[in-house]
Amino acid sequence: MxxxxxxxxxxDCLPRHxxxxxxxxxxxxxxxxxxxxxxxxHGVESVRIIVxxxxxxxxxxxxxxxxxxxxxxRPKKEVEGLMSLxxxxxRKEVPVLNKNNIRLHVIGDLSLLPxxxxxxxxxxxxxxxxxxxxxxxxxxxxxSRWELVNAVKQIGLDVAAGKIQADGINQETLEQYLATxxxxxxxxxxxxxxxxxxxxxxxxxxxxxxxxxxNTRWPDFRKENLVEAILxxxxxxxxxxxxxxxxxxxxQLV
Length: 254
Ligand code: IPE
Ligand code: IPE
Ligand code: MG
Known about the structure:
There is one protein chain. The chain is α/β, with parallel strands linked by helices and 254 residues long. The chain has helices at 2-7, 25-30, 36-57, 76-99, 115-127, 144-160, 171-177, 223-234, 244-253; strands spanning 17-21, 61-68, 103-107, 135-142, 188-191, 210-213. Helix 3 packs parallel to helix 4 and helix 4 runs parallel beside helix 5 (115-127). The protein is globular.
């Protein structure tokens, strides 16, 4: 059945970049009478499956929202539990990433991370930096407003230092100062667990992304859910501000 679903995917118009807000771990756990951390723990299995699924399907970039700037305000016990889960998971997964030619990247304010998480992460970035397959971008201690403020500050400093001209600033300039400067914009953004919001995630980069929302909680999200999201994406009509007629004419020219 899974094969039938995968066979429906048009391999010539896959999204190059999928971004996921992995939401619903806490509720998933609470619904089973468990502590929230139990849900985060199970969420790691979904990460493993979806990373592998994206690699198999030939997706080039996968951004995973793992921890937001605002998540630092959660109860201390949950934050500490999440941090040690990140350290353990990253340590365990590096050999698997290397085996599958997957390169790890991270975006976010890493200065806020505890030292062991910081160290583990940098080791993992180094150890996978030669891989040329799927790029997995972990958004950790990330928020778009943090990223944009940071970019504006850096641009200001570079203007003051005479490195760039203020009146020469355009979209490309701004993009070079974002944490995502190395990556193309996501074409498909998935949010699990039935919340219909962006929660400070890639506000600039999602400008023309197709948004896909599912009620499935993140710990229940499996490869078939990913395939369903991709199939839904492939049924969308992307206009980028133009008319249907223009889009059809352009398609005929290719
Ligand atoms: C997403 O699940 C994971 C993180 C934000 C770290 P939540 O922890 O937000 O789970 P819910 O939304 O409370 O169910
Ligand atoms: C967004 O989920 C952040 C991550 C999934 C890491 P939240 O659960 O923190 O978002 P809100 O608070 O419901 O908007
Ligand atoms: Mg949530």
